[in-house]
Each structure stands twice: as C-alpha cells, then as structure tokens.
Design a protein that fits this description.
Number of helices: 4
Strand order of the largest sheet: 9-4-3-10
Radius of gyration: 17 Å
Order of helices and strands: EEEHEHEEEEHEHE
Organism: Plantactinospora solaniradicis
Number of strands: 10
Structural class: alpha+beta
InterPro entries: DUF6886
Distance between the termini: 37 Å
Protein name: DUF6886 family protein
C-alpha cells in the first residue's frame, strides 16, 4: 500500500476517521499541532500495528559493502524491518487502513532527511479508508525482509553504529535491553 502521485498516506487501525484535525500527540517531541502522513518511500514504516516496536534499516549512498552484508545479509535486498516475536500475532491479526490525503496540503518534516509530511490545517481524506491487507504480504511484495527477533536491541545497536540508513518506531515498547 503506497500513495499515488500527488498523495500522502495516513495509516490507522480506525476505519471511521472522516477528517484529520491537527493535534499534539502525547509522545510528540514537537509542541506544534500537526496532521501526520508519509510518502511512498516511508509508507512501509507503518505496515505494523500502531504500538508495535520496529527497527528498520536500508541501504543508502553511504552504506559500505561490509555493512550491507552485515546488516541486510548477503543477497537479502536493500531493506530490512525487525520486530520481536511477541508482536508477530498482532501483525497477523491487525486490520490496518490507509487514508489517501492530498499532498499539496502537507510539507516535508524531519532533518536532515524528511521522514514524514505534516499539515497544520484540517485535512479531508480523498476517499474512504482502504484496507491495507496482510501486513506480512505487504513486506513480501515490496521485497522488504521482515526479521522476527527475540529482542530488538542487539540488532538496533548494530544498525545505529553502521553506515546504513535507519529508523526506529515505538522502541519504548520493545523488550528490555539486555545490556541495561
């Protein structure tokens, strides 16, 4: 599930949203109220239950061949997402919906590379929410490895000290770090 040209997506487990009103999320680091969405490249970051912790890594221009092999694995593509075993059943059972939103109402957000799009105005979806479908199948069809680990932290520690690009979402919901 990716946005079409001129669109961004908002993913939700709630299929009843009729308009998106800017708000400050309880976990937000920003104090300004936004409506949040993602573009084509960042849509896979949200093919998960909302609260699921995930560590994601992908090859970028500065990725060394050694880090590509170490983090992605030889012959394993350009992107990997990792979750913990405790979330596998939730991924299988979660019904996720995508709302298509007009991209012209949003601006890129995040530095040095944007990781989201935000709007400070109320946004009306372009149509009804669309079921995303099987979240495991979304990963398979996009050629994204999905690793299921006992604990995310050893993988995350390797990722953040490598030359790959990465993102971690809801890591506070992961199991306890084994070194802490």
């Amino acid at each position: 599930m990716r946005p079409d040209p001129g669109q961004v997506l908002h993913f939700s487990e709630d299929p009843t949203i009729t308009r998106f009103v800017p708000h400050v999320a309880p976990s937000a680091k920003e104090s300004e109220a936004y409506v949040w969405a993602v573009d084509h490249d960042r849509a896979p970051d949200y093919w998960f239950p909302r609260q699921c912790p995930r560590a994601m890594a992908w090859v970028c221009e500065t990725t060394s061949e050694a880090d590509r092999d170490r983090i992605m694995g030889p012959g394993c593509g350009d992107r990997v997402h990792a979750i913990e075993y405790g979330w596998l059943e939730a991924i299988r059972q979660t019904r996720l919906y995508a709302y298509r939103l007009p991209a012209e109402q949003f601006r890129p957000f995040g530095m040095p590379e944007p990781h989201a799009h935000v709007s400070v105005e109320t946004v009306e979806p372009l149509g009804p929410p669309e079921p995303v479908g099987d979240l495991l199948q979304c990963h398979a069809e996009a050629g994204i490895q999905l690793r299921v680990l006992d604990n995310l932290w050893p993988f995350w520690d390797a990722v953040i000290t490598s030359s790959v690009a990465f993102s971690g979402i809801r890591l506070r919901n992961a199991r306890h770090h084994p070194k802490l």
